[in-house]
TrEMBL record, chain A:
The keyword Protease is annotated on this UniProt entry: no
Organism: Sphingobium wenxiniae (strain DSM 21828 / CGMCC 1.7748 / JZ-1)
Listed name of the protein: Cytochrome c-type biogenesis protein CcmE
Entry GO CC: plasma membrane
Gene name of the record: ccmE
Pfam families to which the protein is assigned, alphabetical: CcmE (PF03100)
This protein's record includes keyword Lyase: no
Compartment(s) where it occurs, according to its Swiss-Prot or TrEMBL record: Cell membrane; Membrane
From TrEMBL, chain B:
Name the record gives this protein: Cytochrome c-type biogenesis protein CcmF
Keywords: Cell inner membrane, Cell membrane, Cytochrome c-type biogenesis, Membrane, Transmembrane, Transmembrane helix
Entry's Gene Ontology cellular component terms: plasma membrane
Source species: Sphingobium wenxiniae (strain DSM 21828 / CGMCC 1.7748 / JZ-1)
Any matching Pfam family: Cytochrom_C_asm
Role played: Required for the biogenesis of c-type cytochromes. Possible subunit of a heme lyase.
Length: 148, 642
C-alpha cells in the first residue's frame, strides 16, 4: 500500500512537471521563436518594432555605407520585390558584401530600420544560410531571383 | 590498394556483426553453448576490423591519395600533417567511419572486459550491440562510402574548411564520439537485461562503469567543443544553442540522469524500469543528434552535409532502433519486479528529483531544437535561439543545482526533513552573504538570472564539499571524492557562466596604428599591422600590447587569415588569460580611412566555465577508478596467489 502510494505521488509529480514544462515551452516558443522574413514579407505583413526576427535577402549594390565611427554600417536588404534599410554595429562576417546573401538577426526600430545584432553571411558554396538556398542576385537589374 | 583494403575490412566487419547477432539469437534461443562461445571472439575481431578500416582512411589522408574521392573533396596536399590526420573525421563519411569504429571498439571492450554481468545477459548485450552496429554499417556502406575512388585521380584536393583547421579538430570529435557512441553500450545493456529479465542491482553495478566512462568522454568532448567555438568563431560566446551543440547536450543530459539513477539501482535496488528507460533514451538522443547533424535538416553554423537521401536513411535507422527499443521495453517491463521502496525524504527521492529536472531540461531542449522543423512543415521559417533556451533551461538548471547540493547531504532510504535542512544551514548562510555582497556591489548592473546564478554557484560550491565535513579524508573512498569534485565542478562552471554574462565588458572601436583602446581597466595599444604567411594561409596580423592599471605590457596578435583552398577568411582571436578572466581581442576589417575595426572583451572568470567542465569529467573518472579498483585489486591478488 505504502509503496504504491509513494509510486503514485512520484508518477503524478513527474506528470505535472512534464506537462508544466510543455506548457511553458509552448508559451515561450510563441514569444521567442524568431520568424524568418524576406523584405517582401515585411512590407506585406508588417513586423512590430522590437520583435526578434531574422531578415534574409541580398545586400543591395551601392547601398553599403560606413558611419564615421568606423564600426557601424548601413545597408539595404532586398529580395527583388521590396527593400528594407538595415543597420549593424560590429565586425561583419568576412563574406558580407554588396550583392551577396545575408541573414540578419535583430529587430526593427520604430522608424522601420532593421537593427541587426548578428549577421550571417554565405560562407562558401557549402556553407550557405538555408533560407537563401537557390536565390541569386542579378548583376544587371540589381534584383534577386529565386533559383530552381 | 589501401582504400580497397579498408573497404574490405568494413564489409568483413559488417558480416561479422551479422554473424554475431545470429550466434546470439540461436545460441540463446536453443541454449547452444558452442554457439555462444564464439560470440566474444567475433565481437573482438569485428572491433579490430573497423579499426583497420579507420586506420586505412587515416593513411589515405596522410598520403594525400588524390584517387580517393573523400580525400579530394576534403583535403589538400599543402595542408599541415595534423590537419590531414584530423581532417579524416572532419567530413561526413569520415566521421561516420569514426562512429562505427568507436562502436566496434565499445563492443570489443564489452566482450573482453565485462565480467560482472550474468552470462546470458552478457551475450544478449553483445547481440544488441551487433544489431545496432549493423544499421550503421549499412548506412556507411550503402550511402556514405568513405573509400570511393575517382578516375582519373585529381591533381590536388579542395581543402578542408578553414574553420576546422585547428588543433581542436584532433581532440574534440573523437572525444565526443567516444561519449556519444559509448552510450550505445548502456543501450545494449538495457536491451540485453530486458531480454533476459535480469534488471537488478547486480545489473546496475555492471552497467555503471560503462555509463561513467562514456559520460566522462562526453563531458570532455562538450567542454572542448565549447572552448573551441569560443576562440575559433571570434564571437566571444561559449555556447550558441546551435542545433549541433544541442545534439551533444541532449545525450549528456540523459546520461547524467542515467548516471544517477543507475547509482540508485546499484545501491538500493530501486528505479528499475526508469533506469532501463533512461539507458534507452540516452543513446536514442545520440542517434537523434547524429540525424540532426548529418542530415543537414536544421540551419546551423555547423551545417554539414545537406543530403536528403542520407537524412532519410538515418531517420529510418532512428525509427527502427528507438521504436524497437521502446517496443521491447513495453513488452518486457511488466516482467521486471518492483524495486525496493523508499521514504519521501531520502537520497533516493533527491535523485528522482535530479532525474526529473534533467528530463524536463532535456525535453525543453529537444522541443526547442525540433520546433523549427515542425513549423517549416506548416510553411513558416523560424529559428529558436538563446532567448528561448536561456529563459526555459536557465531557471530549471538553477533549481537542479540546489537539489545537487542537498542530495549528497540526505541519507539513503529515510531521513528527517529538519535534519537535512540543518545540514543546509551553512550553504544557505553563505548564499545570503553572497547575495548581499553582489547586490551591494553590482545592483542595477546585473540581471536576475546571472545574480541567481552567482549566488547559487557559491552556495553549491560550499554545499558540495560538505559531504567531506568531519570525515577522515584519507579514508574517504575515491568515488566520494569523485562525486564531490564533479559537483564542485558544476558550481565552478555555473560561477563562470554567471560571471561572464553579468560582468563582461565589450568595446567596439575603429583604431589606427598608434592608437590606444581603453576598456575595463585595460589599455590596449595598437602598434602596427602587417602581413604574415603560414603553411597554407596568409594573414593580416595586428601587433598590440595590453597592460592593466599601468602594469607590465603583454603582446597580443589577433589575425585575419586568408585560406586559398577553399577560399575563405577566418578571424583568429587573440586571448590573454589571467587568473581572474580573459581579454579577448578580434581584428575586423579596414574601414576605408586607415582605421581597423577592433572588438575587445574583458570576460571576468570566463575560464571557470571550462575549468568546471574538466573538474566534472575528472570527478567522473575518479568515481570510475574508485569503483573499479577494488575489483582489480582482488583479481590481481587472486592471480598473484595462484
Amino acid at each position: 500500500m505504502k509503496a504504491k502510494h509513494q509510486r503514485l505521488i512520484l508518477a503524478l509529480a513527474a506528470l505535472a512537471a512534464l506537462i508544466g514544462a510543455g506548457l511553458l515551452a509552448a508559451s515561450a516558443l510563441k514569444d521567442e521563436a524568431a520568424y524568418f522574413y524576406a523584405p517582401a514579407d515585411v512590407k506585406a505583413k508588417g513586423v512590430e518594432p522590437g520583435k526578434a526576427i531574422r531578415l534574409g535577402g541580398m545586400v543591395v549594390k551601392g547601398s553599403l555605407r560606413r558611419a564615421a565611427d568606423g564600426v557601424t554600417i548601413h545597408f539595404d536588404v532586398t529580395d527583388g520585390k521590396a527593400r528594407v534599410p538595415a543597420i549593424f554595429s560590429g565586425i561583419a562576417p568576412d563574406l558580407f558584401r554588396e550583392g551577396s546573401g545575408v541573414v540578419a538577426e535583430g529587430a526593427f526600430d520604430t522608424k522601420g530600420t532593421f537593427v541587426a545584432t548578428n549577421l550571417l553571411a554565405k560562407h562558401d558554396e557549402r556553407y550557405m544560410p538555408r533560407e537563401l538556398e537557390g536565390m541569386q542576385y542579378d548583376e544587371k537589374t540589381h534584383q534577386m531571383k529565386a533559383g530552381q | 590498394m589501401i582504400a580497397e583494403a579498408g573497404l574490405a575490412a568494413l564489409w568483413l566487419a559488417a558480416a561479422l556483426a551479422l554473424l554475431q547477432l545470429v550466434l546470439v539469437v540461436f545460441g540463446l534461443a536453443g541454449r547452444k553453448e558452442e554457439l555462444l562461445g564464439a560470440v566474444r571472439p567475433v565481437a573482438v575481431s569485428q572491433g579490430l576490423l573497423t579499426l583497420l578500416a579507420f586506420l586505412s582512411l587515416i593513411l589515405l589522408f596522410l598520403r594525400s591519395d588524390m584517387s580517393v574521392m573523400l580525400v579530394v573533396t576534403n583535403s589538400h596536399s599543402m595542408k599541415p600533417w595534423l590537419y590531414k590526420f584530423a581532417g579524416t573525421w572532419g567530413n561526413h563519411e569520415g566521421s561516420m567511419l569514426l562512429w562505427v569504429t568507436v562502436m566496434g571498439a565499445a563492443g570489443s571492450a564489452v566482450a573482453l572486459f565485462e565480467r560482472a554481468l550474468g552470462r546470458s545477459t552478457h551475450m544478449a548485450t553483445l547481440g544488441a550491440q551487433a544489431a545496432i552496429s549493423l544499421g550503421f554499417y549499412a548506412f556507411l556502406l550503402f550511402s556514405s562510402n568513405p573509400f570511393a575512388r575517382i578516375d582519373p585521380p585529381a591533381a590536388d584536393g579542395q581543402g578542408l574548411n578553414p574553420l576546422l583547421q585547428d588543433p581542436g579538430l584532433a581532440f574534440h570529435p573523437p572525444t565526443l564520439y567516444l561519449g556519444y557512441v559509448g552510450l550505445s553500450v548502456a543501450f545494449s545493456f538495457a536491451l540485453g537485461a530486458l531480454l533476459t529479465r535480469q534488471v537488478d542491482a547486480a545489473f546496475a553495478r555492471a552497467m555503471r562503469p560503462w555509463v561513467l566512462a562514456a559520460w566522462v568522454m562526453l563531458t570532455l568532448g562538450i567542454t572542448a567543443g565549447s572552448y573551441w567555438a569560443y576562440y575559433e568563431l571570434g564571437w566571444g560566446g561559449w555556447w550558441f544553442w546551435d542545433p549541433v551543440e544541442n545534439a551533444s547536450l541532449m545525450p549528456w543530459l540523459a546520461a547524467t540522469a542515467l548516471l544517477h539513477s543507475v547509482t540508485v539501482l546499484a545501491t538500493r535496488d530501486a528505479l528499475r524500469a526508469w533506469t532501463v528507460m533512461l539507458a534507452v533514451i540516452a543513446f536514442s538522443m545520440s542517434m537523434v543528434g547524429t540525424f540532426l547533424v548529418r542530415s543537414g535538416i536544421l540551419t546551423s553554423v555547423h551545417a554539414f552535409a545537406v543530403d536528403p537521401e542520407r537524412g532519410t536513411f538515418i531517420l529510418a535507422l532512428l525509427a527502427i532502433y528507438i521504436g524497437g527499443a521502446f517496443a521491447l521495453f513495453g513488452w518486457r517491463i511488466g516482467a521486471v519486479r518492483e524495486g525496493a521502496p523508499f521514504e519521501l525524504v531520502s537520497r533516493e527521492t533527491m535523485l528522482v528529483v535530479n532525474n526529473l529536472l534533467l528530463s524536463v531540461i532535456l525535453g525543453l531542449v529537444l522541443i526547442g531544437t525540433l520546433y523549427p522543423l515542425l513549423t517549416e512543415a506548416f510553411g513558416h521559417k523560424v529559428s529558436v535561439g538563446a532567448p528561448y533556451f536561456d529563459r526555459m533551461a536557465g531557471p530549471i538548471a538553477l533549481v537542479l543545482m540546489i537539489a545537487m547540493a542537498a542530495g549528497p547531504l540526505t541519507r539513503w532510504r529515510r531521513d528527517r526533513f529538519r535534519a537535512v535542512a540543518g545540514r543546509l544551514l551553512i550553504p544557505a548562510a553563505v548564499a545570503l552573504v553572497t547575495l548581499a555582497l553582489v547586490v551591494a556591489l553590482a545592483w542595477g548592473r546585473i540581471g536576475v538570472l546571472p545574480l541567481a546564478g552567482l549566488v547559487i554557484a557559491v552556495a553549491v560550491a560550499v554545499g558540495s564539499v560538505a559531504p567531506l565535513w568531519k570525515r577522515n579524508l584519507r579514508r574517504t573512498p575515491l568515488f566520494t571524492w569523485g562525486m564531490v569534485i564533479a559537483h564542485l565542478g558544476c558550481a565552478v562552471s555555473l560561477g563562470g557562466m554567471a560571471s561572464d554574462s553579468a560582468f563582461t565588458v565589450e568595446k567596439l572601436a575603429a583604431a589606427r596604428p598608434g592608437d590606444t583602446i581603453e576598456t575595463a581597466g585595460w589599455a590596449l595599444r595598437f602598434t602596427r599591422i602587417m602581413p604574415i604567411a603560414g603553411d597554407n594561409w596568409t594573414a593580416l596580423q595586428a601587433d598590440m600590447t595590453a597592460s592593466r592599471d599601468g602594469g607590465g605590457a603583454v603582446e597580443l596578435h589577433p589575425q585575419s587569415r586568408f585560406f586559398a583552398s577553399p577560399p575563405t577568411t577566418t578571424t583568429e582571436a587573440a586571448l590573454l588569460t589571467r587568473w581572474n578572466g580573459q581579454l579577448y581581442v578580434v581584428l575586423g576589417q579596414e574601414t576605408g580611412d586607415g582605421r581597423w575595426q577592433v572588438r575587445v572583451w574583458w570576460k571576468p572568470f570566463v575560464t571557470f566555465i571550462w575549468l568546471g567542465g574538466i573538474m566534472i569529467a575528472l570527478g567522473g573518472a575518479l568515481a570510475l577508478v574508485g569503483r573499479e579498483r577494488r575489483g582489480w585489486l582482488m583479481k590481481w591478488r587472486a592471480r598473484a596467489a595462484a
